[in-house]
């Protein structure tokens, strides 16, 4: 790079000498030649400066790239370190709990889950998701409902005493079915019952209990002889008493979760209090109660503080 600069400088100097010689040979000019000479000198200098610019620009770009590269390397190194620490922590937990919780293969665990679910089909509590109200739901609402079904099924698989799940009023040509296939991996192999039949025609009416926040009766227990219904409805316009009115039309008993009996309203910035929960939140409460027979513990798991309710004991 230096020899190019030297060559350029030599060319500039030679032009200057030549121009100076022309000026001496022609002293009769009226100063125009002198101005022209000076203009030639300026052009030569500008040309020389342009030749030197790429070197500085390249150096500046390389420094900027290097700085970004160092920053990225720090981020990658931090992530690797965090993953390594998490891996070591899990390994330590496995060693510590190896005597208490024996490790099993994934195949064994899948087999165990399948066995529990099939046992629930014959002798466990039954939960029906009423999907007959999805015709007027938007795509966004259908997507949210499909996500809630996925989370509900995931919680049921983890439960020691799972429920047997029914998806009623559920057709394979519906937009909800397509959304469930799109959002939920392995949805077609879920261990549950899908049927186009309505829940009111599938079971004897005296065995049905429709869970709705508009009911006057608080749920006291989970009865194995009953079939509990959750309305598969995500309604951003918040139409009130939709599920309650549907249950009344079919002369079916209704019940609400005992939130008012075990929880109290707490102050919050928006003064917001709601007993309306997603179907997976309601299921988490039912599942926890069925295993623990403890309503405060069950409600604490399903009702977040964002709903504006806290347990009475925590306030006292």
What does this protein structure show overall?
There is one protein chain. The chain is α/β, with parallel strands linked by helices and 316 residues long. The chain is 56% helix and 9% strand. It has 11 helices and 8 strands. The strands form 2 sheets. A 6-stranded parallel beta sheet has the order 3-2-1-5-4-6. The chain has a two-stranded antiparallel ribbon with strand order 7-8. Helix 1 (2-25) packs antiparallel against helix 2 (32-96) and helix 9 runs antiparallel to helix 10 (295-302). The chain starts with a helix and ends with a helix. Residues 113-310 form the SAM-dependent MTase TRM10-type domain.
List keywords for this structure.
S-adenosyl-L-methionine; disordered N terminus; coiled coil; globular; 6-stranded parallel β-sheet; two-stranded antiparallel ribbon; 316 residues; methyltransferase activity
Brief digest:
56% of the residues lie in helices and 9% in strands. It is of the alpha/beta class.
The Rg value, from CA coordinates, equals: 38 Å
Largest sheet, in brief, is: 6 strands, parallel
Strand line-up across the major sheet: 3-2-1-5-4-6
Strand content: 5-15%
Task: State the end-to-end CA separation.
Answer: 81 Å
Helix-strand pattern: HHHEHEHEHEEHEHEHHEH
Number of strands: 8
Count of individual helical segments: 11
Please, what is the average pLDDT?
80
The parts where pLDDT drops under 50 for at least 5 residues are 1-14, 16-29, 32-36, 38-54
What is the molecular shape?
globular
Summing up helix and strand content along with how strands pair, one would put the structural category as alpha/beta
State the share of residues found in helices, binned by percent.
Answer: 55-70%
């Amino acid at each position: 790079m230096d020899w190019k600069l030297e060559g350029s400088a030599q060319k500039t100097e030679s032009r200057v000498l030549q121009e100076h010689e022309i000026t001496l040979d022609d002293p009769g000019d009226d100063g125009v030649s002198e101005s022209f000479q000076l203009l030639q000198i300026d052009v030569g200098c500008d040309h020389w400066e342009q030749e030197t610019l790429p070197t500085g620009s390249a150096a500046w770009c390389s420094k900027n790239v290097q700085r970004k590269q160092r920053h990225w390397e720090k981020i990658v190194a931090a992530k690797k370190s965090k993953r390594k620490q998490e891996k070591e922590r899990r390994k330590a937990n496995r060693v510590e709990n190896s005597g208490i919780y024996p490790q099993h293969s994934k195949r064994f665990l899948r087999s165990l889950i399948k066995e529990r679910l099939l046992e629930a089909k014959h002798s466990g509590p039954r939960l029906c998701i009423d999907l007959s109200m999805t015709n007027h739901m938007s795509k966004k609402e259908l997507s949210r409902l499909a996500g809630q079904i996925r989370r509900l099924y995931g919680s049921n698989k983890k439960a020691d005493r799972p429920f047997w799940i029914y998806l009623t009023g559920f057709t394979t040509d519906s937009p909800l079915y397509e959304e469930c296939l799109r959002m939920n991996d392995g949805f077609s192999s879920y261990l549950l019952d899908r049927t186009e039949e309505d829940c009111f025609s599938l079971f004897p009416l005296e065995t049905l209990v429709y869970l709705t926040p508009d009911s006057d009766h608080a749920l006291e227990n989970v009865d194995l002889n009953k079939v509990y219904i959750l309305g598969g409805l995500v309604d951003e316009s918040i139409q009130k008493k939709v599920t309650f009115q549907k249950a009344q039309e079919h002369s079916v008993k209704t019940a609400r979760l005992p939130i008012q009996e075990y929880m109290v309203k707490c102050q919050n910035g928006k003064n917001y209090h709601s007993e309306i929960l997603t179907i997976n939140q309601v299921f988490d409460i039912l599942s926890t109660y069925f295993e623990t027979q403890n309503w405060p513990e069950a409600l604490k798991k399903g009702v977040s503080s964002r709903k504006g309710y806290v347990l009475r004991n925590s306030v006292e």
